[in-house]
Amino acid sequence: MSELTKQGFGTxxxxxxxxxxxxxxxxxxxxxxxxxxxxxxxxNETREKIAPEFWKNFNNRDNEVxxxxxxxxxxxxxxxxxxxxxxxxxxxxxxxxxCGVRKDEDEIQCGGCSQELExxxxxxxxxxxxxxxxxxxxxxxxxxxxxxxITALIHVRIENHVQEMCNASFSCSxxxxxxxxSNETLLCSQWLDTVVLGWLSRVYMYSPVQDITHxxxxxxxxxxxxxxxxxxxxTRIDQMFNIIIEYPDSQPAVEDLxxxxxxxxxxxxxxRKLEQTLVTKLLHQGxxxxxxxxxxxxxxxxxxxxxxxxxxxxxxxxxxxxxLRNRHDTVRCVVTALTDEGPSELADELVRCQVQxxxxxxxxxxxxxxxxxxxxxxxxxxxxxxxxxxxSSDIISMLANVYGSKETFVTEYRTLLADRLLxxxxxxxxxxxxxxxxxxxxxxxxHLHYCEVMLKDIYDSKRINGHLTSDLNFDLIRKQExxxxxxxxxxxxxxxxxxxxxxxxxxxxxxxxxYTEAFEMLKGNRTLNWKPHLGFVTIDIELKDRKxxxxxxPTHATIIWHFQERLDWTIxxxxxxxxxxxxxxxxxxxxxxxxxxxxxxxxxxxxxxEDTPGGRCKDSMTVDMSCEDEESDSPMxxxxxxxxxxxxxxxxYIVGMLTNLDSMPLDRIHQMLKMFASQxxxxxxxxxxxxxxxxxxxxxxxxxxxxxxxxxxxxx
Length: 716
Known about the structure:
- This is Anaphase-promoting complex subunit 2.
- GO terms for molecular function: ubiquitin protein ligase binding.
- The chain is mainly α.
- It contains 31 helices and nine strands.
- It has helices at 3-7, 15-27, 31-56, 64-82, 86-99, 122-138, 142-166, 175-179, 188-203, 210-238, 240-245, 251-263, 267-282, 289-306, 311-316, 318-326, 330-338, 345-350, 387-392, 395-400, 406-422, 430-443, 449-470, 476-479, 506-523, 554-562, 571-578, 582-594, 639-661, 666-673, 688-700, and strands at 537-542, 547-552, 568-570, 598-602, 605-608, 622-626, 663-665, 705-707, 710-712.
- Helix 7 packs parallel to helix 10 (210-238) and helix 12 crosses helix 14.
- The protein starts with a helix and ends with a strand.
């Protein structure tokens, strides 16, 4: 123990010598410093030596008697140690009085009224409070006068306590605190007993019938505990969006909410509140589609833990699914996430080994082995869906079913795959093939057969190009001034291409003809139908002071080709020469303007620029670059355009039906069209709503008449 505690704040001195020391300390203005130094020494001594010695007494305990004896010994030793500080503390108190210093923390305040003890009147107030309650209880009017007020005060106190306890904290479980299972966190049930019910007991403590009062308080405790659960549940429901976004870190909060919903009647409120929150925070143009998808995936995982039956998930996310179905880039974002090389939740979901093969259109029976744990579906469950069908769908299948069927999702994926294959300069399809195999596990080989053929076309094209180039029988190297390769696509398996026109230079068309003849020699009765606007052209441009190597589209290459024949062109003349619309041509010319090779000297008049600005000569300078057109449009027709083309197949049948039957209702037309749904590259499906929009558009185009719920052809 330090000299401070042993000798009592220094060596023993007479009272006169002590005051001389105090005068010196006061003169040097060291009163506060000396006091803080002494207090720090006492605190360190207590923390480092006294407290550890105290707790050592409780390490081992053989029985209750032994435990009590050790407790008695620990308290005795603690008292003996602390009592040694008293001489030093008395001298500190004399030093304070001598220096006239009194610190704020020394002014002890009442915990009830926050006043200094000298000004506290809590005892008088409590005496008056108890006396008043006693009289009201004897008159049997306390409950009538103050019952509602007491209840309201307690409810407010509970609500404030819950807010303080779990505000914005989702990584810890508080349900054990609510049920008083754990002592590691703030115990709400214990808090309810000590704080709330302790106060309530003081209100009714003078009741003449104590047993009845005790029973009433216990009954009131059950109501308060229920209110405690309701308050906690409502708080978590209000925070549900943030809980979803932070999942899986918020799993403890989700598990708490799952248990609380079972104890309260707030399932309906949870459904309405969460659905409204998702609509407000997600379903607007200010949120990017990838962010909506991320939130949707997190909601699926969260709600599956919250409600394993899948009913809540099916109900709450219905507006999100409908909204995603109407966003044009949803499938593109999904497929991009699925096939992303970087970390992605959807990519991880795709490569999981366990695959659930469930036919959603067939009746499914619950597992008979678990009949003892069977529970009925919630009252808000859709009776047309079985429990197993709601629980079995994986996240990828759910995203695919956003469009109502796997076929629509696969069609969109097919279009995106075609875009990716055509935008790649190499023939490497290893990554696409790997993801296609994984998707086949999810959707079946039949749905993705066309995609498999598309990848095979790329592989076959590489093989055919190599064969035609290396085989001397075809002699392509000698016949062609520059090498020509082709992607040979099976037209019936690929999505429709955008219809664009482009008149290539004659020398390029001659090369195409040479390649076609060689292909016909190789394949016999097969020929090629070229798409001149698709593909890549590697060109070398030699100017006066530099040489540029570029990989550009055929349209860009044709534009610059014509400028070697003439130094200036108007948009109108070049558009007529290339058979390209003027608006498209101007957009393409902008690329060459950005490269400094073309300049607009007057409206719609462009000239070739051979010299670099400043006239500096840069002989033998070579610049390698690739063309990144400002427009990133897909060469494939959009899904909307493809769907319009598929629906257009029905038009001739509709005209024939209305010609023979005069007029028909929508449902009858839809039923008769089902037998004609086998056109196009895949089975064409058309639901009633889609057919209605198609027929209504024909009405707006004055090709149909509609009245009285019947469609008919206009009279000619």
